Amino acid sequence: MSLPQITRLLSWQHPLRGETLTLLRAAYEPGTGQAVAVISQLADQHGITYDFSRVANSAWPLLQAEMSPDIQSIVWIAHFGDFSQHDPGGPETFTAIALKVTEDGYEDDDVSDRRVTADEVTRLFGGHPLAPVPDVLAQLEPST
Length: 144
Known about the structure:
Blueprint: E1 5-14, E2 18-29, E3 34-40, H1 52-66, E4 73-80, E5 93-97, E6 99-102, E7 105-108, E8 114-116, H2 118-124, H3 133-139
């Protein structure tokens, strides 16, 4: 099954370090209104888990504009590996980040995060595994 997907470099404001870039890959299942957004921590950028709600709040308008304004729920996933400073040289990891929806946007839950497998992420992307981060970055057009 092929789901609508987007891949973008996402700029967001780290509360201590300013503008930060991450890799956003998302898929949307129109029949259920369910989306998944994988945010990959990139080397030489500031940490996404310091305030993941800011990353989600930056991604949300883009997801609505480029995928669907009818998204009902999103599974947010933080992604780390040898391409990120979180775990250089370590194994690739995926963590589902629990966020609460408030009047002002997303807020970190801080207690319900859980690890997910690459197979689970593949299933959420309609059976299509994520391409390696370095390959994706090489294909993205430079920002102007």
